[in-house]
Amino acid sequence: MARKSDEILMFSTAQRFVHWLHTAAFAVLMVTGVALYAPWFGNSVATGAGGHVVRLIHRFGAIAFMLVPICYLLFDPQGLFAAMKRIFTWGPDDLGWLRAAPAYYFLGDEEAMPPQDKYNTGQKLFYLVVVFCMVGFIVTGLIMWFAKGAVAPWVFQWSVFIHDLCTIAYAAFFLVHFMLSVMHPLMKGALNGMLFGWMPREYVKHHHAKYYEKLESES
Amino acid sequence: MTKAMLIDVSKCMACRACQVACKAWNDLPAEITVCAGCYDNPTDLSPDTWNRIAFWEVERDGGRVDWVFRPVRCMHCSDAPCVRVCPTGALFKDPMGFTAYDESKCNGCGYCVQFCPFDVPRLKEADLWGKGKTTKCTFCQDRVHEGLTPACAKACPTGAIKFGNRAELMAEGRARVEKLKGNGFTDANLYGANLLGGLGMTYVLTDKPEVFELPRNPTGGLAEAWQPWIQTLGGVAVGATALGLVITWLVARQNIKVEEAEGG
Lengths: 219, 264
Prior knowledge:
The complex is a heterodimer of chains A (219) and B (264). Chain A is mainly α and 219 residues long. Chain A has helices at 13-37, 39-45, 48-75, 77-88, 92-107, 121-146, 153-183, 190-196, 201-207, 209-218, and strands at residues 7-9, 198-200. Chain A has a single domain (7-218), classed as Transmembrane di-heme cytochromes, Chain C (Fumarate Reductase Cytochrome B subunit, Up-down Bundle), CATH 1.20.950.20. Chain A contains 10 helices and 2 strands. Chain B contains 7 helices and 10 strands. The interface between A and B is large, with 48 and 47 residues.
């Protein structure tokens, strides 16, 4: 399964494509969305005809965003179902991870970190936020786009409200995700997995010990 | 000085002079309407109709029917939900107290339409790709700033629509309500003196607000929650996360240095 003996294939081409489609859509939606969300930003860029363009781009971003789950389902259904199964499976090691994580991330104490599967507890948490917020974004977004005026005002108002809450959760978790995958000095290797599909064997062994054990026992 | 209008429905005879004057001053075209089986014409506000007379037939005990009417337009709330949710500043509070509008800033999002407790703003040229401009009564902001009376108040032949200093108009309204009560209108009331921070469009009503389809306790709904709470929450949540990440990064870098030192 390994391209080189010192690397392990973690993500299929379809999974990587879906990930970066998601990233691109998120970037477009976040920038244009914040313009509508925060007056200190919107007052300068989202007014008048320019504001209409911002909202138009947000709609194109939304189409790309809605294609993310569709593409995943079409191109790699097995990968999607496996990922869903992983993020909804929680055990004692997850509680252990949550207890040990603050000491690890803020004090650098790695002792108590329990071994992790393909996704560690934090990654599962992020994935769950993404899944639930994606449903929230798409349902409330479609209401605001196509049902404005057709639904009662309180439905629209709650849609905006939920859309905002999803944005806050998404933005906060995105920062964590970006930091840990791209900038964190101890996590070099994770980015490689999403760019090319392969991660260093040593990295997987260290950060995803349970998954590594499974792969070893299978081969 | 805070300005306001006081509409005394006991003096209104539904002549629609205000409706016509509004169209004339704001350069709004007439609409082709159909008879809806009542006197309402048109039957709703629209991008071309910012002010209209609404009619109601109220059946009393003993089979008597009262015919009541009032002009329907923007209520110019002091604490206006539309201003709270407007992301561009196109809707804003004028120092004179009314809810002003700068159409060039509007990006057509339509939040004001959905958050208005009185169902007043209407989008024009709206399409599914987000185009549009909101429309509503502007309190004749272009006249008022020049020291003129709003067109509707200027045109009203019976003096039912009055424009002036808010405090004086409220005193006048309260006196008028007492007089109406003495004349047998036991449910007469002054509507809007304190609602939503005090409305800029207030009414002397001859009957309960429900009769005139006016909400007893209008609120901004979720607009109250939205700003500033949600925006503050967003800033705090994202800011705290960023701060935590900086600490994490520094800790990790420090650890690498320590390990390198130990290893070396």
